[in-house]
Amino acid sequence: MKKHVFFILLCISVLSCKSSVDKYISELSFEGRITDIYRDLNNHYMYTFTIDTKESNLSLVADVFNNSWEFAEVGDSIFKKKDELYISVKKKNGECGVFYYQ
To answer: How many CA atoms lie within 13 A of 58 on its CB side?
Structure first.
């Protein structure tokens, strides 16, 4: 019985956490240039973009946008609008890629 209760609580916790992340991603809005792509040792070795925007620099975990780090290069433009669950990356040669939050 205790195992089942623990499992149910774990599922509720994971779903609640995912819901919070979904909301954070949905609210996020930016437009800028990728200045670095790296594996963040402090965040489970996840691929991360450093993005230079008009307002500031920000770090974005690229791993949550399916294979975006394989397409993107330093110097590419990157966009995300509020209420959208994807990013757009535009290369210097004009090629574009759209990567959905997973």
So the answer is: 16
